[in-house]
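Dear Dr. K.,

Following up on our conversation at the group meeting, I've run the structure prediction for Putative transcriptional regulator, TetR family from Legionella fallonii LLAP-10. I'm pasting the input sequence below exactly as I used it, so you can double-check it against your construct before we proceed with anything downstream. Let me know if the numbering doesn't match what you have in your notebook.
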Amino acid sequence: MTTMNYTETQENILNAAESLIQKRGYNAFSYKDISAIVGIKTSSIHYHYPSKEDLAVAVIDWQLHKIVTPLDEIKGQKELSAKEKLIALIDAITALTYNDEKKMCLGGMLASDALSLPESVQSKARYFFNILYYWIEEVLAAGRLLGEVNLLYPIDDFAHYLILQIEGSLLMSRLYGDAADINLVKQFINHVMM
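The predicted structure tokens came back this morning:
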């Protein structure tokens, strides 16, 4: 992933849009909402992001820009087992979502709006999830080589299943107002990857 440079105004717009998508979804926010949060005119937002579609694609890139380095750092920690790396992934996702104003995963919120999203946003949301899938697959494959991973499932299936569990646990934790379901996913990993 290439390094991206953002102006302060772009960062403020992207942070506001990211938060609004994670709280409300793509279809439930407007440039007027961002304008009120950032304190700039909607025309200034349109200058940087001519359409809501452009903004949504930029928000996904923005979040990937923020999470790829920490995920690479987790993956590179040789002292952590594959199981510990997966738990660290869940903790990192939870820190960006549920523990931050009960937000949902950006990709999950966009997936829930998929039928009304422009194709470019759908494509970028799939790319977002593919980054997570491949990260999990790489961690599991490395763990298998070290004798830490002995799954009954193919690694790619387990990676998809784990993403489904994480997304579902975030939804249910948000609905019930506690992190019990997120903790169940961690327990599942501990049980399956003894």
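Two things stood out to me. The mean pLDDT is 96. The domain at 53-192 is CATH 1.10.357.10 (Tetracycline Repressor; domain 2).

Best regards,
J.T.
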